[in-house]
Design goal:
Structural class: alpha+beta
Strand content: 25-35%
């Protein structure tokens, strides 16, 4: 990027050849009525006001709600037609939003259309009708221009865009925005154009309002997007403050070290090694855990090989789990297992795992089944013959059984009438009838049950025949009334019987009242019945009907013979009722017999098959056990070759009891023996500080809180695994990086209580060694949850961001670091600058550099450490980093400040006698500024620290003025250059050059003013 400054003396010769007062009253500035989030337009060309126009004039802006950005300088709202070749593409407008004005950047649509029509006439007919094919043939080379207004005016004069022959033009009447400027004499295949950012009046002031700064940020972002090459034009007034800087005092580091905490733990000791353990004894020693705000240590214990047995007694297991065990584990099947259980095992997995043995077992089973079927066929024929012979006898037995069951309630009725159709059986042959019935009830139990069910359904205790019911009611009513009225003469009884059987209701009541009166008034029977007689009759009649309804049919039938002799007048009615009951029960017997006869073949078939099936199954069971024993021996032998640490012993398998509730489960009986291979048991011991101890250091930073080790969390790993990185995080979480037997990396970030389960589930981010490098380094920044993976030899950087929902995800693609290093150089150490996006990289030449993940570039400064350090740590507050250098006999720790990286020497910490077992760790207690350096002393079983207080005196500098006229000319001189600051801010957030991966060559003709001497110039990248 190129930046140029212009002296103020040259501004007197600039002129754009336009008089602001030359515009007539009819010239107006048109602003769109549509909102800014649509495709908006600012057309500042002079045109006559039209009542049908969709725009509002300046006079209407007070009511419309949208107005030009600058209200204090209305003279800037002039026509762009007066500046030939310049077109506004992005404009800044002010819009009313609620009770305030809001600045918005919108597209100047009409002006942009005029630009398209200028370069290719007719290419843009409307907003939706654009000939993009014609535009593709037109090539342009835009160059971005920004800076002070005076410098931009002088630049426009230099390229003959405006005329300043009179030297009176010192400002342009333009609104803040982006403008395209065409150069008429540009040559080459691509037309050269300038995209100019015209700032607001206060854009480059130190006290610019936040809205003005935000507008500048937006326009600068668009400018860097539109142009590959951007030029900053810096005036002399803005360049003066950054012209000369002299250093009067170098920064100096101040170190303060005091005693920290010390806590003991019984777990801090060197465990004795095992003769069968091939692990390095150093890897089994306790070690400190990394952590910016949490502290702790980790112990490692070798757990030798051991056996464990778990017994199953009717254990419910899902089908997939059982199939997995049958396919992958060593098996020991009991020889006494049932053929049914063995058949389940064959279908669940044996057929796939042992196909040959299962095929032989299937063939043998088929032969046995075929022989069994032949035997069943022979016996089936015998069964059919027996069924046909026994059917006639069984039908007679059914009729006898049904008749006895139905007529058991009516012993006075004639049951022999039910056998009139059976010619081979005499009705009175009770002994034969009993013998015939006993056989089906003994041999065919189902037949007896069916007879009992049908008889129960028939419910013969109630004879549901209408005529019978009426006859029963009349007979019993006569009996009740004769007793209740006390009838003693035959004539009265005959009269009563005749009235009950034949008279209607009214006549019957009259006759009954007469009889009652005659009996009551024996002295004078000739008188008529009174009302009392009639009322008494009604009461007697109601009692009689109630008594009749309570009489059961079996009792009524049983008393008929007695009633016949008691009331001779009812003999015909009683005989008719008896005959109705007899016929009704005979019909019931015939109906039940027909139902039972229809089901008789199935019952006989089933009953006759029970005995033959038992005779056939028994020898087949023995044969199947013999055939299954051969399969079991093969399975038990071949399954031992799989090498599984688990041995499953099975006694039985069944799913009949779970078929309805759990159709996909089985009930398993047996045991499972597990051979647990040697493991490494890792235990995390986080340090705890009570709430009370945390409050005191917040009031007094020199106060060291009491600490202790109480809780612990464990997880197991195979012996071939190793821990590459372990870091405690806030919220009781742990970042754990493991290396497996293939040296591939597995990254876990979980709560301490869940880390063991996560490892067993293999819920991790995996780094393949062949894709990254044989050797790689890891560093993690807690505040940004950012993990950096540095390939030591390939010189490649991969960055991953952690999210609780997605885990670790890549942040962009890999960064190639080879352009910054010579051949043969490798990366040896790395760490984050805590809380920032900068990464410290130390190579094999002992040179330290800082790489920015935002700009994707190294800082210009580097640091020569002279020796490759054994370790490097960044302070939790992000102010400095420590470098540990050791030559075997002497260890030194040097602190370097991040802000003065490469410009100052480090500070040697005076703690040479403070040695510990293993590596150091740096962390903070209570808050990040309270930094402690931790160590372990395994002989004393302690974890101790020293508190570090490292500060730097700020370098004192002064800016020398090169010219006293500068201060007298500008009393409000800024202490920095906002033009440069804005651009640095843009490129810091949006590194366009590195993102596009493009190198723009420096063109001598970029700026015509470069050919002339000028007061000051600054060229090259800003950082």
């Amino acid at each position: 990027m190129h930046m140029t400054t212009i002296s103020d003396s040259e501004l007197d010769h600039l002129d754009i050849g336009i008089d602001p007062t030359s515009l007539g009253d009819q010239d107006t500035f048109l602003i769109p009525t549509r909102r800014a989030h649509e495709i908006n337009l600012l057309d500042v060309s002079a045109r006559a006001s039209d009542s049908n126009s969709s725009y509002l004039s300046v006079e209407e802006q007070e009511e419309g709600g949208i107005e030009g950005h600058s209200q204090t300088q209305p003279e800037e709202d002039l026509s762009l037609v007066s500046v030939p070749g310049m077109y506004c593409i992005l404009d800044l407008i002010r819009e009313h939003s609620a009770s305030e004005l809001v600045d918005k950047v919108v597209v100047a649509q009409d002006s942009f259309w005029r630009f398209l029509d200028e370069i290719s006439p007719g290419v843009c007919l409307s907003l939706t009708k654009v000939d993009f094919g014609a535009l593709d043939k037109f090539q342009i080379k835009p160059i971005g221009i920004y800076g002070s207004k005076a410098e931009i005016i002088r630049f426009l004069v230099s390229i003959a865009v405006i005329d300043n022959t009179s030297g009176e033009v010192k400002r342009l009447p333009l609104r803040s925005g982006l403008y395209i400027c065409r150069v008429s004499d540009s040559g080459g295949a691509a037309e050269r154009m300038y995209v100019i950012y015209w700032p607001e009046d206060s854009t480059w002031d130190d006290d610019a309002s936040p809205s003005v700064r935000q507008n500048c940020f937006i326009f600068m972002r668009y400018l860097t997007k539109l142009c590959d090459q951007v030029t900053a034009l810096v005036s002399g007034g803005n360049a003066d403050p950054i012209s000369k800087v002299s250093e009067t005092k170098k920064p100096k580091g101040l170190v303060s070290i005091c005693r920290g905490f010390e806590c003991t733990s019984d777990e801090l000791f060197v465990s004795g090694g095992h003769s069968w353990c091939n692990k390095d004894p150093e890897s089994l020693k306790p070690c400190l855990l990394l952590g910016e705000t949490r502290q702790g240590f980790m112990t490692t214990k070798y757990v030798p090989t051991r056996h464990s047995v778990k017994t199953f007694d009717s254990f419910k297991i899902s089908t997939p789990l059982l199939q997995d065990a049958l396919m992958n584990e060593c098996l020991q099947i009991s020889e006494s297992i049932s053929p049914k259980s063995l058949d389940y095992l064959v279908r669940l997995g044996f057929r796939k795992r042992f196909p040959d043995a299962c095929s032989a077992w299937t063939e043998a089973f088929t032969v046995l089944k075929s022989g069994c079927q032949n035997d069943i066929g022979v016996q089936q024929k015998n069964i059919d013959t027996e069924v046909n012979e026994a059917r006639t006898q069984t039908e007679m037995s059914i009729r006898f059984a049904v008749t006895d069951a139905i007529f058991s309630h009516y012993p006075t009725l004639d049951r022999s009438r039910c056998f009139m159709s059976v010619s081979t059986l005499a009705p009175d042959d009770k002994s034969r009838r009993s013998q015939s019935y006993s056989k089906p009830t003994i041999i065919h139990s189902q037949l007896a049950a069916n007879i009992a069910d049908e008889v129960c359904k028939a419910d013969c205790t109630n004879i549901n025949e209408e005529i019978f019911r009426r006859s029963k009611e009349k007979i019993l009513l006569v009996l009740h009334l004769s007793k209740r009225l006390g009838i003693k003469t035959g004539s009265q009884l005959t009269k009563l019987t005749h009235s009950v059987l034949n008279d209607g209701s009214k006549k019957f009541h009259s006759t009954l009242a007469t009889i009652h009166h005659e009996i009551a008034m024996q002295a004078n029977p000739s008188t008529k019945p009174t009302a009392i007689d009639r009322r008494s009759v009604r009461e007697i009649l109601r009692e009689g009907r109630n008594e009749v309804s309570l009489a059961s049919d079996p009792d009524f039938i049983a008393d008929l013979e007695h009633l016949k002799s008691t009331i001779p007048a009812l003999q015909d009615t009683i005989a008719a009722a008896r005959d109705l009951a007899q016929k009704y029960l005979e019909n019931i017997v015939d109906k039940l017999c027909r139902i039972l006869f229809d089901s008789l073949p199935c019952i006989l078939q089933q009953g006759t098959q029970e005995q033959p099936n038992f005779e056939v199954d028994y020898p087949t069971e023995q044969d199947l056990c013999g055939v299954g024993r051969s399969l079991i021996l093969t399975v038990n032998s071949q399954s031992q070759l799989c090498g599984s640490p688990h041995t499953l012993r099975i006694e039985s398998v069944d799913n009949s009891c779970l078929r309805d509730e759990y159709p996909d489960s089985f009930v398993l009986s047996g045991e499972r023996e597990t051979l647990k291979e040697a493991r490494l048991l890792f235990t995390i011991h986080p340090m705890q500080i009570t709430t009370q101890d945390q409050r005191e250091p917040q009031l007094n930073t020199t106060k060291v809180p009491n600490s202790r080790f109480e809780e612990s969390y464990s997880f197991e790993l195979p012996v071939e695994f190793s821990v590459l990185h372990a870091q405690l995080l806030e919220g009781d979480r742990l970042l754990l990086v493991l290396l497996d037997q293939s040296d591939d990396g597995h990254v876990y970030l979980h709560r301490l209580s869940d880390i063991g389960n996560a490892i067993r589930r293999e819920h991790s981010k995996m780094f393949h060694r062949d894709k990254i490098d044989e050797k790689f380094l890891l560093t993690f920044d807690e505040s940004q949850a950012m993990l950096a993976v540095v390939s030591c030899e390939k010189l490649r950087l991969d960055v991953f961001i952690h999210d609780d929902s997605c885990g670790f995800t890549a942040s962009g693609g890999p960064v190639d670091l080879n352009p910054w290093y010579s051949d043969g150089t490798t990366i040896r150490k790395t760490c984050f600058a805590s809380g920032s996006d900068e990464l410290l990289l130390i190579d094999s030449q002992a040179v330290a550099r800082v790489f920015s993940l935002t700009t994707m570039q190294f800082r210009p400064a580097s640091l020569n450490l002279h020796h490759v350090p054994t370790d490097v740590h960044s302070s939790p507050d992000g102010s400095y980093f420590l470098v540990v250098i050791s030559d075997g006999a002497y260890t030194s720790i040097i602190a370097y400040h991040w802000s003065t990286f490469g410009s100052t020497d480090g500070v040697l910490l005076p703690i040479t006698d403070w040695a510990g077992d293993g590596k150091f760790a740096i962390s903070s207690l209570v808050h990040r500024k309270t930094v402690h350096l931790l160590k372990l002393d395994l002989l004393a079983h302690t974890c101790s620290s020293v508190a570090l207080d490292i500060t730097w005196e700020v370098a004192e500098s002064m800016r020398q003025k090169h010219d006293d006229d500068v201060s007298s000319r500008d009393a409000n001189l800024t202490v920095h250059d906002p033009v440069v600051d804005r651009h640095v801010d843009i490129w810091t957030h949006f590194p366009v050059l590195q993102m596009v991966q493009r190198v723009t060559p420096c063109c001598p003709s970029l700026h015509p003013l470069r050919c002339r001497p000028r007061p000051r110039s600054l060229s090259g990248p800003l950082f």
